[in-house]
Automatic annotation (TrEMBL):
It comes from Conyzicola nivalis. Residues 1-24 form the signal peptide. Pfam families: LIP. InterPro entries: AB_hydrolase_fold, Lipase_secreted. Keywords: Hydrolase, Signal. GO terms for molecular function: hydrolase activity. SUPFAM superfamilies: alpha/beta-Hydrolases. It comes from the Bacteria. This is Alpha-beta hydrolase superfamily lysophospholipase.
Length: 400
């Protein structure tokens, strides 16, 4: 931002504060300033020195954080599904003040779909905290919150949309990055919390935590309306504009990540779908929704040429990226709204049943009169209370 414009913005902010403005006014002005200056933060050093997963490349304070908290934008090392060293961005938020003896536990948050292109990352916008559902309650409960953007969003990197290992590793490494910021006061205790796409990410993080990040003491994982049976999900959403939008993110991602396994768009989509998919995948769900829908609208009924649940390699890849292959070593909380039209409530309940059958400890919370967008916000108080019970060793309700 030019120096004069920044000075004007700061002066305007001071005027707002002196006139007794609300916290939202302060955060908005500071967030606009930071958003204009953020792009260079995401650029990889040249040359990039290799680093272990979770090692910070850089961090910077975020002034527009909530009152009573401190926050940082972070750029850190992670690993993709092939073990390649990649950079991932995100944010870390902690309660203000000195951490208690022993430090603060970390909740690593996995966000729902915002898009799949770099500029769609939650940390890039003027308010990078909007997409951390339940942030205030988590901070008030004494948690440090780490929130990854996922690989390929914010910082350049491999596609990650519904690629379980890429997402899950970035969720775990965000917690490692939080521990590297001394002022956050984070310790090794870890809890996972995710919504929708983030539910799938959190579940993969939970499955892989012991092998991938053994120094973290994973205690529990909570998900809201998680993407679990991916083939069923694509079948459910393929007949409307929103579904085609989400499908474009997944199919573009898989066609690049799994190109060596024959995941070509031509093997699953109509010629019109093949042409439109990269265009849709370059747009963000927030802020560019109408532009995506303009492309997706004419494709309703003319997008898929085959069934992703039966056409290989797609069927195999979707199964590999559906969580639930192994029992979880920690308790699982699953929340689901009963009027959700994106994630089928019956599919989520079936996933909870499956987890019980393979030996996971499951608490299941159906939420009445709640659709996809509100389920995490309506569940978060129960999730925090459940986290407290699990950490204290108190009995919790069992779905099993």
């Amino acid at each position: 931002m030019p120096r004069l414009l920044r000075a004007f913005s700061v002066a305007a902010l001071c005027g707002l504060l002196l006139s007794g403005c609300f916290e939202a006014d302060r955060r908005l002005v500071e967030g606009v300033i930071e958003e204009s200056e953020a792009p260079s933060f995401y650029e990889a050093p040249d040359p990039l020195e290799p680093g272990p997963p979770g090692e910070l490349v850089r961090s910077e304070p975020i002034a527009s954080t909530m009152t009573g908290s401190v926050a940082w934008r972070v750029l850190y090392h992670s690993r993709d599904l092939n073990g390649v060293d990649i950079l991932v961005s995100g944010v870390v938020v902690a309660p203000a003040g000195t951490a208690p003896a022993g430090g603060r536990p970390v909740v690593s948050w996995a966000h729902p779909t915002t898009g799949s292109a770099p500029r769609c990352a939650p940390s890039v916008g003027a308010d990078p905290f909007d997409f951390i559902e339940g942030l205030r309650a988590l901070l008030d409960a004494g948690y440090v919150v780490a929130a990854t953007d996922y690989p390929g969003m914010g910082a350049a990197g491999p596609d990650s949309y519904l690629v379980g290992t890429n997402e899950g590793n970035s969720v775990l490494d965000a917690a490692r990055a939080a521990r590297a910021i001394d002022e956050a006061g984070a310790n090794d205790d870890l809890l996972l919390w995710g919504h929708s796409q983030g539910g799938q990410a959190a579940l993969f993080a939970a499955q892989d935590a012991a092998a991938y990040a053994p120094e973290l003491r994973l205690e529990a994982v909570a998900v809201a309306a998680p993407a679990t049976d991916l083939a069923a999900l694509l079948e459910r959403v393929m007949a409307d504009v929103s579904g085609i939008t989400l499908s474009s993110y997944a199919l573009q991602s898989y066609s690049t990540v799994y190109a060596d396994r024959g995941a070509t768009l031509e093997s699953l989509l109509t010629p019109a779908g093949v042409a439109a998919t990269p265009k849709m995948a370059s747009l963000c769900l927030i802020g560019q929704n109408s532009a995506i829908h303009d492309i997706a609208g004419p494709l309703v009924g003319n997008y898929f040429s085959g069934d992703p649940a039966t056409v290989d390699p797609w069927a195999t890849l979707l199964a590999e990226n559906s969580p639930g292959a192994v029992p979880l070593a920690v308790p699982l909380f699953v929340a689901q709204g009963d009027t959700d039209t994106l994630i089928d409530p019956a599919t989520t309940r079936s996933f909870a049943d499956h987890e019980c059958a393979i030996g996971s400890e499951v608490t299941y919370l159906p939420i009445a009169d709640t659709g996809h967008g509100l389920v995490a916000l309506r569940a978060v108080d129960r999730v925090i209370a459940w986290f407290d019970d699990v950490r204290a060793g108190r009995p919790v309700d069992s779905h099993c």
